Amino acid sequence: MTVKPPIAAEMARIVVVFDFDRTLIDGDSDSWVVTQMGLSSLFNQLRSTLPWNSLMDRMMTELHSQGKTVDDIAECLHQTPLHPRIKTVIKSIHALGCDLRIISDANQFFIEKILDHHGLLGCFSQISTNPAFVDDQGRLRIFPHHDLNTPPHCCHLCPSNLCKGLVIDQIRASTTQNEKTRLIYLGDGNGDFCPSLKLVEGDYVMPRKEYPLWKRICSNATLVKAEVHDWSNGEQLEKILLHLINTISTEDNIRSRLSNQLNSSERRISTHEDACPQTLSIPH
């Protein structure tokens, strides 16, 4: 009898995806810089005339005209409030081997400066956000993630500059054939509803309670296939996130043990059948 090869236990790749503003950090990084660097009046004056990314780019131009440098902006970002338990849990789940990502409608410069200041930048394998760079005049420039001069992304749930659901699709598509991905998505805003709808059974979504994403999910619960766990502050986020990762790991361990038991049983059956004498057919 031919012995079947052992069935490999399917271990999940855990991808934890964070929104940034009002999720990973308590406030909004754009609003923080605008307020702390004295741009509120000009910002409010231009708010209705420009798309958000263009408006933030205009604010950076204003700072440059005032003699403020990118180092001044970085120093302002270093003061952005970050809950200590969120900092702790990010380091913990990275050490556990989770793949950490950020999908945010903030911008690359703001996000990277804040994370680097807190020693967290190296914990994230990918940051999908609006690009930013310092030009040859030393001015910080901010542009939309999805170039508005290219064909639209066609998602009616998301702003024109960024569809977070498309990024979730890309993460899922990067999974190898023999690898199962379990996603945990954390967010707060209306822009986080689209990626929440991309999650499947076995995934988890963690909306911040009383924020727009939580309200959208409560009003459209049947559309969300992922298991929902809401949170309000850093302590709750840490506790729930560690619980979910432990749950996934426990399920994997159970599947692994069952797979090993099945393989062992098949080997014993195969050995027993091979040891039994063959029945001879006696001619009459």
Describe the protein.
Keywords: Hydrolase, Magnesium, Metal-binding. Its cofactor is Mg(2+). One of its GO terms (molecular function) is phosphatase activity. It contains eleven helices and eight strands. It is α/β, with parallel strands linked by helices. The chain has a domain of 173 residues: HAD superfamily/HAD-like (Rossmann fold), CATH 3.40.50.1000. The protein has a six-stranded parallel sheet, sandwiched between helices. α6 packs parallel to α11. The N terminus and C terminus are likely disordered.
Task: Report a brief summary of the structure.
The protein is built from eleven helices and eight strands. It is of the alpha/beta class and 284 residues long. It is globular, with a radius of gyration of 25 Å.
Features:
284 residues; alpha/beta; 11 helices; 8 strands; 15% strand; disordered N terminus; disordered C terminus; Pase_PHOSPHO-typ; phosphatase activity; hydrolase; metal-binding; metal ion binding
Strand segment count: 8
Structural class call reads alpha/beta
How confident overall, as mean pLDDT?
Answer: 88
- Main sheet? 6 strands, parallel
Helices, strands, pairings?
Blueprint (H helix, E strand, L loop, with lengths): L11 E7 L1 H5 L4 H8 L3 H7 L5 H14 L4 H9 L5 H12 L3 E9 H10 L6 E7 L1 E3 L5 E3 L21 H10 L6 E8 L5 H5 L6 E4 L4 H8 L7 E2 L5 H42 L9
Helix pairs in contact: 6-11
